[in-house]
Every structure is written in C-alpha cells, then in structure tokens.
Amino acid sequence: MNIPLEGASVRSRKLERFKCQAVPAARVVPTLAEDVLQGFARRPRVLPPKYFYDALGSELFDQICDTPEYYPTRTEARLLDQSAHSIICQVKPEHIIELGSGTSRKTAHLFEACEANGLEPSYWPFDVCEEVLHAAAEALLEAHPWLSVQALIGDYSAGLAHLPQPAGRRLFVFLGGTIGNLTPEESIAFLSELRGLMREGDAFLLGADRTKAPRLLQAAYDDASGLTAEFNRNVLNVINRALRGDFNPHAFDHLALYNEALQRIEMYLVARHDQEVHLMALERRYGFLHGERILTEISRKFTAESLTAELRAARLNPIRHYQTEDQYFSLVLAQPS
Ligand code: AVJ
Fold first, then answer.
1. CB neighbourhood size of 165 (10 A)
2. Residue 12: its pLDDT value, please?
3. pLDDT at residue number 7
4. Taking the CB of residue 212, how many other CB atoms lie within 10 A of it?
5. Residue of 52, 53, 60, 61 with the most ligand 1 atoms within 8 Å of its CB, for mutation
6. pLDDT at residue 10, rounded to an integer
7. What ligand 1 atom has the least distance to the C-alpha of 72?
8. How far apart are the first and last CA of the chain?
9. CA–CA separation, 47 and 67 (whole Å)
C-alpha cells in the first residue's frame, strides 16, 4: 500500500485551525484531600466519581465501553448518528460547544451532518486533559478541512462563568449520560448555570440513560470480564498516590446495585474484612469494618418524563426527544425558555 506522507503545508494548515486556551475555575473547587476528608466523615463513606479518571482509569473506561454489557456508549453513538441531521438542521449552529468532550468520538456524527448541510461551525471541546483534546482535534481536523477547533482546557464542574462567549448561534452538548453522576439538586444547578449562558437561538443537546430492567442495569455496571470492578478499585490507587495511602484495592469487592426508589445505579467498594488504612498526607487512619461500603458513584437513570422535568426545572424547554426503539437511551434537544 502507498501511504502518502503528510506535507509540511498540510500540517501547518491543520495547526492554524487549532487553538487552545485555559478556562479558569469560576468557584473554589475542593482538593482531592478535602474531598476525602469530607467524604470519609459521612456514612456511608463517599468518594466523588471524577477521581476514577487517571490514565489507567480512562483506559479502563474505554474498555468498559466495548463490553457487551455496557450498552450506553454504543447506543448513544447510534442514536446520534441517526439524529445528527435533524439536530443540525434545526439548530444551524455556528459554534458547537461540548462539555466533557473526551475523545469527541460520538460528536464526529454532528460534524458529518454539518458538512452534508453546508454548515461550517467551529468546535469548542471542553475537557480537563490537554493531551486528550489534542488527540481528538487531530482526527477531526484531518477529517474536515473546513473545521476550526478552539480547545478549552478546564473543569466544567468548576463553573461555566469563564467560558468564552463567541457571537452566533451555539449548540451546547453534554453527552454520555454523565448528567447521571449528579444528584437531582446538583444537576438542576448545573443545567441552570448553563441555561444562564444561553441566548435566544442557542440550543442544548443532552444525552441521558434511561430506566430499564434492573438486571440489565446491574450487568452494565458489573461486566463479566471484571473491567468495571477494576475501574472501581482503581480509585483507591489514585488516592494512594495523591495522599500517600496504603489502601489495598484487593481488600475491597466491587458492588453495583440498582436503587429502584432513587432510579440510580450505586457503585460501592465493600471491605472484604476489618482493616485500617493510613493516609499519610492527611495524617489520618481510617478503620473499615468487614462489609462496610464506600459509595464511589451514582449513575441516575431517567424516564422520558423525569428527564423533561429536570430540564424544565432549569428553564430549558425540550423541543425534540430522540430515543432508540428499545428506549435504552435518550438525546434531548432543548432551548432556553
Ligand atoms: C461516564 C459517568 C457516563 O455512569 O455510566 C461506567 C461511568 N461507571 N461504568 C456511567 C461508569 C461505571 C459512566 N459515565
């Protein structure tokens, strides 16, 4: 096979279409040490799910997405593929701003729809990791010669007040069902903050996972190959590194339960025996009793009604609801009301 070499001019034109800027936090964000101190003072003890995603955790999450049990990623990708044309034609965005963009793999469907409809929006991916932003942009710039990427480095949960405000119609996107990691109160606060940035004509596309048979949900969060268990335990390695701790991840079992009353998956680490853990950087020791649980993640599941109600509570008006035939996953397009 003949692989063409990328010429210097092609490369520089690609670079010209990529810009990168930091988005400073708009509020004080607790440090990992503060989160652990706070979370371990509660019962059950809790840890914020954002600490899952070190290099290994991000890699494990990618692998989870390819397991037969974890349906959300592939279902959302298929749904986005099917609905991208409709979304783009309704919004006609001049800018696409994605919160927590990661690899931007699913978002690619939106750019294909733009191209097919003669629209050339610029892309503003917002993510904590600069390397990930670079890699994602590289692929998109290669695929779409008209595209310009304005990468935003920062933590969207630290506030949106310092997001750049380009003129022109904007489509904000928040995919993956990550909204489910927030409690209803946190979610409405986050959506309201986003709503506050939006102007007439702007739109918001939200991906959210749906309620379904508990056995399907539990399997998705406890895959047979054990990747989710490893992903869950890895947060203890993250804490060990950050706080000079001596957690033994193997002294904890992975547990995923569907809480029907709260319509959410709860992921726990369960102590396999009585033990004491020393976190040197905190100068603290924590005892764990056999069977004691640490709540490491909630992942809320929505009905069409609960999803719509949550958007409305943030003064966002759903204008289109895209769902797969099996109703496994939803994409809702909303406008400020
Ligand atoms: C990335 C937050 C959408 O809640 O389904 C996957 C994370 N946790 N398996 C989810 C996760 C366990 C995932 N989100």
1. 10
2. 64
3. 73
4. 16
5. 61
6. 72
7. 5
8. 55
9. 25
Contact in structure between 84 and 329 (CB atoms under 8 Å): no
Q: Which atom of ligand 1 is nearest to the CA of 232?
A: 12
Cα(115) to centroid of ligand 1, in Å? 31
- What confidence tens digit (pLDDT) does each residue in 259-315 have? 999 999 999 999 999 999 999 999 999 999 999 999 999 999 999 999 999 999 999
Q: Mutate which of 156, 178, 182 to test ligand 1's pocket (most atoms within 8 Å of Cβ)?
A: 178
Instruction: Show contacts of 263-266: CB within 8 Å, 24+ apart.
Output: 263/211, 263/300, 263/301, 263/302, 263/303, 263/306, 264/180, 264/298, 264/299, 264/300, 264/301, 265/217, 265/218, 265/220, 265/221, 265/297, 265/298, 265/299, 265/300, 265/301, 266/295, 266/297, 266/298
163: phi then psi, degrees, rounded to nearest 5: -65, 135
Say if ligand 1 is within 6 A of residue 297 CB.
Answer: yes
Q: With a cut of 50, which residues of the chain have pLDDT below it? A: 1
Check pocket membership of 72 for ligand 1, CB cut-off 6 A. yes
Q: Nearest residue CA, atom 8 of ligand 1?
A: 221
pLDDT of residue 4: 63
pTM: 0.95
Say how many residues make up the chain. 337
- Regarding the beta carbon of 174 and ligand 1, being less than 6 Å apart is answered no
pLDDT at site 129: 87
For ligand 1, whether the C-beta of 102 sits within 6 Å is: no
